[in-house]
Amino acid sequence: MVVEEAPTTQRAPAKGRILETANELFYEDGIRNVGVDRIISASAVTKATFYKHYRAKDNLIVEYISARHVTVRESIEAMIASAETPEGALHLFVADIAAEIARPGFRGCPFINAAAEFPDADHPVRRIVTDHREWYVDTLALMLRNMGHPVPGDAADELLLARDGALAGGYAGDSVAATAALGRITSRVLAEASPAKPA
User: Fold this and answer.
1) Nearest to 26 by CA among 16, 38, 14, 15
2) Residue 118 phi/psi, 5° resolution?
3) C or N: which end of the chain has fewer Cβ atoms within 10 Å?
4) What are phi and psi of 136, to 5 degrees?
5) The pTM is what?
6) Cα 87 from Cα 127, distance rounded (Å)
7) DSSP tag of 128
8) Mean pLDDT throughout 41-59?
9) Is the Cβ–Cβ distance between 165 and 183 less than 8 Å?
10) How far apart, in whole angstroms, are the C-alpha atoms of residue 22 and residue 33?
11) Spatial distance between the Cα atoms of 91 and 84, rounded to a whole number of angstroms
12) pLDDT at 22 > cutoff 90
């Protein structure tokens, strides 16, 4: 199930600052490590303003992870639309992950990080993470189906797990090795989609 986007109404400036601040702090320091008072101070709003817009930190957390999903979805959809072929889109997918790993302040996958902080599978954050990952697999599977891969669903699962490994390895280990490994797996998946050449 794909996460539904929030209505595209214009966000109040103060509410936008709160969400932008949470987006940075939750990712950098962990969701549970960042308190409401720190968010209020860093976003330059009053406590009354914070509670007017969010009422509780849990509501802000849910909006944070939902907004992350929307950002990723829009980015990948734009990537697919800009590519001339599904194969080209897959190469852009790998290049985008490599760029993310190399970005200053990279702290791994925000969705995996959030899932680690919320172990209850029924928690709203975990449900959003699950929906995000299902959307990701469905998107990759469609891309692979369009290039004629014989088992697009299985290959999409492999690519998502390879992405997970690259993001985790890129943060905790050797970023170059992690990116190279993702590239090798992607090349193998592309080879599986290519028709066999006659002998």
Assistant:
1) 38
2) -130, 85
3) C
4) -60, -50
5) 0.86
6) 31
7) H
8) 95
9) no
10) 11
11) 11
12) yes
Q: Residue 50's closest CA among 115, 59, 189, 136?
A: 59
Tell the residue number behind the tokens 């914070």, with chain if given: 50
Nearest to 104 by CA among 165, 24, 16: 24
Distance CA 107, CA 91 (A): 23
- Answer yes or no: are the C-beta atoms of 41 and 25 closer than 8 Å: no
Angle between helix 124-146 and 152-172 (nearest 10):
120
Does the pLDDT value for residue 6 go beyond 70? no
Q: Are 76 and 139 in contact (CB under 8 A)?
A: yes
The token pair at 186 is 């992607």
Rounded to whole angstroms, the Cα distance separating 181 from 170 reads: 11
Q: Please check the confidence at residue 12 and state whether its pLDDT lies above 80.
A: no
Round to the nearest angstrom and report the end-to-end CA distance of the chain: 44
